[in-house]
Amino acid sequence: MRSTPTILSGLLALLSAAGCSPPPPQALGTLEYERVTLPAPAAERIVEIAVREGQRVERGQTVLRLEAVRVQAAAQAADAQARTQREALAELEAGPRSEAIGQARAQLVAAQARARDAAAYYARLKPLGDRSLVAASDVDSAGAAAASAQAQVRVAQQALLELERGTRTERIAQGRAAVEAAQAQARVQQVSLEKLDVTAPRAGRVDSLPFELGDQPAVGAPLAVLLVGPAPYARIYVPEPLRTRVRVGQAARVFVPGHEAPFAGTVRMVRSEPTFTPYYALTGKDAARLSYLAEVALTPKAGELPAGLPVRVEFADAP
Question: Residues in domain YbhG-like alpha-helical hairpin (predicted)?
Fold first, then answer.
């Protein structure tokens, strides 16, 4: 049987070993949410702000509205242009009117009559010119007039034939392309008009509204920033010695100030490029080391935690 001093010395050794055990691997960072920025679709005045900072919004809910006078006028002009192109296409597809064909036939008959008259005059004048009873220049003029009249007959014949054959398929294709282009432009203007009612693309919370009622932001300026997602995530900086022990899919415990129990999380991303540790993540020797940016997804249980809180993440099951 062991002596009492021996047992006591063994217990002291165990307690000493337990007290000297190293802390579990950990990394520091902050709580963050996925952010969605709503840019200004046009340089128009803000005429309504329908939400306030910190308010929860649902998908499709109106956040603010921009003045629509100019864009609405452009949309109406695009619609009118599309209607014009559709009517022009309908005219091409219908072909020439019967009245136009009748007019072309009448012009052909008139041209033929003038040609016969010019030919008859030339036929009468030529024998006189051969006997030098009239000037040669008069005979030449009459011959030229007869030839010109015949050319006018051929012109009238081709014009009538063009009308009778109808519109060329190439012109109809061009008309259809013009209609499609005008309709596409009208849709673009309609989309631009609808975007003046700035809505939330996802459910979330309004983080910031940089502009006030009556401001006129430039195109692309951030009108609102939303925090979206069912829960925040921890953006942490993994110290260089710990990098090989942290992997995607690994379980983690996230400690948040003001909460005694840690929140469960899962490593969802670890950057491969190192960076310098930010000032708020400096702990001991880590100040002189590189670190790797990582993200730890939290469960929906942490959905009400605010963004920006400092956190400490432990990887209890790191190999």
Answer: 70-189
